[in-house]
Amino acid sequence: MLPPPGPTGLPEPHYPFHDRTVMVTSCGRLCLCRKKINLSKSLAGQAVGVKEVDSGIWLVSFIDYDLGYVDLEERTLQPLENPFGPKVLHMS
């Protein structure tokens, strides 16, 4: 069951498999470990999930989509090729 919609009409995101949930600032930045990383103004005011996958490297997700990886030392986001494209399931 989906949670009730938030102010944008989208369900409030829930990230149980991430280390934390972070709000994107009104100017589209992600504040993580006292560092500011430009993410996207289109996500301003939205909650994203972040999970440390390696030392200083964090996976950023929005709802069910992995957007890319943040490198805290470089303060950059390396986006995935097309996180909103069709998902292909591998058959075994």
Distance between the termini: 29 Å
Q: Which strand-content bin applies to the residues?
A: 35-45%
The beta-strand count equals: 7
> What is the molecular shape?
globular
**Averaged pLDDT, please?**
85
Q: What is the radius of gyration?
A: 14 Å
Briefly note the structural class of the backbone.
Answer: mainly beta
Largest sheet: 5 strands, antiparallel
List segments where confidence is low: pLDDT < 50 over at least 5 consecutive residues: none
Series of H and E elements: EEEEEEE
Binned, the helix content reads: under 10%
Q: Helix count, per DSSP?
A: 0
- What is the spatial order of strands in the main beta sheet? 1-4-5-6-7
Fold and architecture overview:
A five-stranded antiparallel sheet has the order 1-4-5-6-7, with no helix packed on it. The chain is built from no helices and seven strands. Strand 6 and strand 7 form a beta hairpin. The protein is mainly β and 92 residues long. The chain has a domain of 60 residues.
